Each structure stands twice: as C-alpha cells, then as structure tokens.
Amino acid sequence: LHMRGAGPTKKKLPPLEAEAQEYGCRQVLTASSRRVNRAGVQHGRTCVHSREQRASAVQQDGQTDLSAATSTPPKPKYTNANMPVDPEGRTYHLNTRGGEVANRILSVGSSQRAQLLSQLLDGPAPGKPLFTKMSSRGFLTITGRFKGIPLTIVSTHMGLPNMDFVVRECRAVVQGQMAIVRLGTCGAAQPPAKLGDMLVASAGSIAIRRNADAWTVPTAGYAKYAVCLPVLPDPKLCALVLEEAQKEVGAERVVQGLNASADSFYSSQGRINSDFDDENESLLQQLCANHPELISLEMETFQLLDLARCAKGGSILGMSMCIALAERYSNRFMDYKALEAAELAGGRAALSALARVQLKDDDSLAAVENIKSKVQPVWV
Predict the structure, then answer these.
(1) Which of the chain's termini has less CB crowding within 10 Å, N or C?
(2) Which letter does DSSP use for residue 25 in this model?
(3) Cβ contact 205:305 at 8 Å
(4) Tens digits of residue pLDDT in 356-372
(5) Are strands 258-262 and 294-298 parallel, antiparallel or unpaired?
(6) φ and ψ at 180, to 5 degrees?
C-alpha cells in the first residue's frame, strides 16, 4: 500500500523475474534447474499464475483495482466428467498428453527432487532439450533419456490421492506396458532400518487408515485405525531396483522389508499431538509387533502397488524404494545436507532399474503411429 498521491516504488527485477511479471506469471526455475541449464540442457519455460499475484490488488488514488486481482488465464473446455481431458488430449491434473510421458516413469515426491534428478537425463532426442511441463496443480513432468532409453520423471507430491492422479493419468496417455518406480523419503519404523538407508519395499505395502466411525460411534467398539493386507511389488522390477541400489550405496545400506502407507502424516503414523484426540499412542508399537518385517512409514507406496495389481492385463509394473529421512524409534532426523547425495544415489539406482526392465508393447521404443494421441512423441 502507498499514500494517496504518491506513486508506487518500482523495484528493478532480474530479467527472468521481469519477464514473468510482464506476463502475469512466475517462472518455474529453481537452483537445480539453473544448474541443468548451465550444463547445456534447456528446460522449457512454464509459467503459472501465482496466488500472490491473483490476490494482490493495484492501489490507485486510494481505490482498489479488482480486475488486477481476479484476472486468470482462460480455462480449457472439458466434455468428459469421467476422465477429463482437454481438446488437446491433456489430462486434468498432470496436463500431459500422449507422446509426452514415456513408458518408464520415476515418481518422486517434490518438484525440487524431480529437477535435481533430471540432471541425470539426456535430452529426449538428439539436439532436443528435456521436455518439461508444470501443470496448474503443481505436478511437474520431465521427459528425457537415461542410457538411451526414454524415461519420465514426475513429481507426485504427498498422499494416496496424488499417487492416484499420477498413475491413472499417466496410464491414460501411454500406450503399452508401463513401469513405475517411486523414490521417496520415509520414516524408518524399526531396526535394522536406520537414517540414510535405502528401504526397499520388497515385502510390499500395507495401508493404514483412520476409521472415523470409531469417533462417530465411540461405544460401538470399532478399531481406531484400519490396516489392509500387504500388496506386493512386481518381482522383476523389485529385483532390479535392489541390485542397482546395492551397487550405488553398498549392500549394508539397503534394507528390504514391508512398507506402510498412511492416510495422514500425523495420526495414522502414530505421531502424538496434544491438540487432537487421535488415540494413537500405541499405534506404531502395535504395527511393529503385528508386522515384524515393517521397515518404512510414508503415504504413497500402497496406492502405486494397489493400482499396479489392478491394472488390466498386467499393464503396470510397480515398485517403491524410500530414503530413511527419520528414525521413528529413536526420534532422530536426517541432516538435510546429506539428503541431496542420497537422492542422487537413489535416483541413479531407480533410473538404471527402469532402463533395464523389459516391457511388452513398449510405446517409448515403438513407431510414432502407435501413440494414442497421434502426435509425435518428444523422444523422437
């Protein structure tokens, strides 16, 4: 805000920020992507309207110009409420279409990790930069090649629903069998898992869900937390991830076991919060007692493995490996200075496993005419 009659002070912006402001958007460009650009890879620019720019109003002569606060880019038209795609065939949440997503996908939690690991990729085709797409919902898709094989990195963010978006919408635009590996972070549930280890869900994943009925009808005796039976990963993809992880960090830093995916970071993972009546004080101990092979707690793996087993015709191979960012049994937390090195090591292992896995009807290596959307793929 400024005083009536006084003009706003203009701050000189760096070139990229000035360009972004001119078009009413912010440049999606982090330190990791700048490092990639300096290495000679040009990321496609994707602008998204920021919340701050939509919310800010221009004050002139003591009045508020609401048009500046409410302007938004035009929305595409959708005609199918069951699986919404726009006229270009782009999906609703990821905003990608056929030819932009390869058959081999590395799912990571954050956009920063996706950009960091994109440094390990070559361009999708000779002379082409990495394909980069940021959707309005914040899903970042990067497609290139690893060891000559077309491969896509997608930021999944957190939680079971977000993994559902990624798996289903990638499946909708990819022809042929797919392989998806999740590389995430997690809490180590119990020894032998420890800080910095690569925790491979070779025994599959269970889901932990808060049962709201137990609070709605407290006298009914319902269990406060429901736990599903394990869902297993694809065995050949699991073996490849395990082998590559051991090459990267040594067999002593790779732990196999059972994963648990919760519907909450807090209550369903046994974190105690005095502000809420979660009744989860003994939840973590009960989980470990009932599942001696339990090694990791997070929020995404179960959904990936469940969708992979439900994909018709075995069209999706799924696997998950997580970096132990915290020890739940000791309450220790990993130093973030060491996390980037662990992410790169895990990324190399996961990408190598994906490049090696054999797929049926591999669209990434097939002729252009086999693409569902009939557009030329970015890796050709």
Answers:
(1) N
(2) S
(3) yes
(4) 999 987 766 664 445 45
(5) parallel
(6) -125, 125
